[in-house]
Amino acid sequence: MSSYFPDVSAIKYEGPDSTNPLAFRHYNPTEVVDGKTMKDHLRFAVCYWHTLCGTGSDPFGPGCAIRPWDQQGGSNVEIALRRVDVMFEFVTKLGAPFYCFHDRDVSPEGKNLSETNAIFDKIAAKLKAKQDETGVQLLWGTANLFSHPRFVHGASTSCNADVFAFAGAQVKKAMEVTKELGGVNYVFWGGREGYHNLYNTDLRREFDHLAKFLQMAVDYKKKIGFTGQFLIEPKPKEPTTHQYDSDAAACTAFLKTYGLDKDFKFNLETNHATLAGHTMFHEMTYSSSYGMLGSVDANRGDELIGWDTDQFPTNLYTTAQIMLVILNQNGLGSGGLNFDAKVRRESFEPVDLFHAHIGGMDAFAHGLKIASAIRKDGGLAKFVKDRYASWDTGIGADIEKGIADFGSLETYMLAKGDSAANTSGRQEMLENYVNRFMK
């Protein structure tokens, strides 16, 4: 079999002093941190869409990426089959244990649904063979319900019932293929589930339809015996003005309102968090607090650009914060760190895909070590515990236990007096404290 990356060997760990751009400086898959190997902590996944299907196009120009596997030509199906070889060569040389895809990333549409499904089966058979050959696993599958013109008004929230039906058929097939390939999660991202203009939108009806769609998915999951975790990926805008899965809090409220909260967790993305006006630390902490954190899209945005730039993660503060939350909840379970990120338009050669992923994997491995050191030191956890000490005994404990009421609070304050002395939050001291571990 021909190599698509002939000048790249398997990427190895060479340590922090290495100057080799095609080597890991921090990601050592067998290194044990907090009782688990880095490979088990981080569960890295390569995404199909940006890595193999991205061309470097942007709103101001067509793609300029050099992608020999596509430029050899052939039918859409022939190109799709060739991409399978490229993906598994790339993932195995990189040393990532997982990959993930949208259905239309790996398999093109045919002239009708029947032909489309048949093509998908053909591609899936080759994916399965390559998984068996390499040991690489599927972190998650999902369906692209946003690119085709039929989804111009959304998928499950479309004003057209036929579109809802088509979307259901498409998700049914994507779930079946994900199960066949041993996928350990399945993701729902509502790319066009939202609105541009409320003048033409029945908002409550669309929410109801979205809930019905997800319940159908839950029912079918049980019917086929799929044991993977369902994940929802929040995003506030783009391509719609307002998307219904806008952030972790909105998704939690939606799922609880419709009784779906036990069936779903979240796949959080850093760039989506910042578009929602949050930090990723906030979205991670909120989701984990409610037992909803399931997986992570590992990327970042550009503070100077107001859209979803999907850049590779390089900020150690962000990766350390993400890993701190993950360690505090004892891991992601079946989830992982998926690089939903794309090389910049100017980085158009195939080798740039390696440079980008190596940097992202090293940034998270470094962040893991920083987070582990912060937890081992214990100073941050102790400060938070001490700050809330008044809730552990006395009137605070009574409030949390639900045995206090306004009358008892009044009685307590009349006896104690009006004094309610606060202590400093020490924000700057804590920021300095975290800086001590950034090395």
Q: What can you see in these coordinates?
A:
This protein is an alpha/beta fold. The chain is about 45% helix and about 10% strand. It has helices at about 40, 50-55, 70, 75-95, 105, 115-135, 160-180, 205-225, 250-255, 270-275, 280-290, 315-330, 350-375, 380-385, 395-400, 405-415, 425-435; strands at about 10-15, 25, 30-35, 35, 45, 100, 135-140, 185-190, 195, 230, 240-245, 265-270, 295, 335-340. The strands form four sheets. An eight-stranded parallel sheet has the order 7-6-5-14-13-12-10-8. Its EC number is 5.3.1.5. GO terms for molecular function: magnesium ion binding; xylose isomerase activity. Homotetramer. One of its GO terms (biological process) is D-xylose metabolic process.
